Amino acid sequence: MDIGPKTIEAFSKVLAGTQTIVWNGTLGVAEMPAFAKGTDAIIAILAGRTAAGATTIIGGGDSAAAVEQAGAAEKMTHVSTGGGASLRRKSSRVAR
Questions:
Q1: How far is CA 63 from CA 32, 91, 96, in A?
Q2: Domain at 5-12+19-86, CATH class
Q3: Distance (Å, rounded) from C-alpha 45 to C-alpha 64?
Q4: H or E segment to which residue 36 belongs
Q5: 79 pLDDT band (50/70/90 cuts)?
Q6: How far is it, in rounded angstroms, from Cα 41 to Cα 81?
Q7: How far is the C-alpha of 19 from the C-alpha of 63, rounded, in Å?
Q8: So where are the chain's domains?
Q9: How far is it, in rounded angstroms, from Cα 71 to Cα 63?
Q10: Alpha-carbon gap, residue 96 to 90, rounded angstroms
Q11: Which among 67, 72, 73, 81 has the fewest CB atoms less than 10 Å away?
């Protein structure tokens, strides 16, 4: 119901040099404190990346709430509750 230390470490390594991060969705049942450790760890990593100059975009109600609850909303570049809308790809087909 949450990610563990090895997954947190793996995400940390992948995100270490990343300059643009779009995050939509918590990493477990983050609304339950016992299962929010992974989400909180990723929030801390993203805040650190933002401080290092990366662009961090947080989308979705659950993700935005977790970032707010962690007191890290001001440490991100952009936080929006519009998760699905921010991820939806514009169709190249023209409606007739």
A1: 13, 26, 37
A2: alpha beta
A3: 15
A4: none
A5: very high
A6: 20
A7: 19
A8: 5-12+19-86
A9: 12
A10: 16
A11: 81
Q: Tokens for 90?
A: 């514009």
**Mean pLDDT computed over 69-94:** 77
Average pLDDT, integer, range 21-30: 92
Separation between Cα atoms, residue 51 and residue 72, nearest integer Å:
11
Element of type H or E holding 53? none
Radius of gyration of the chain (CA): 14
Which helix (H) or strand (E) covers residue 46, if one does? helix 37-51
For all residues of the chain together, what is the average pLDDT? 89
| Region at 63 (left for phi over 0; alpha for psi -120 to 50; beta for the rest) | alpha
Asked if residue 96 has pLDDT above 60, the reply is no
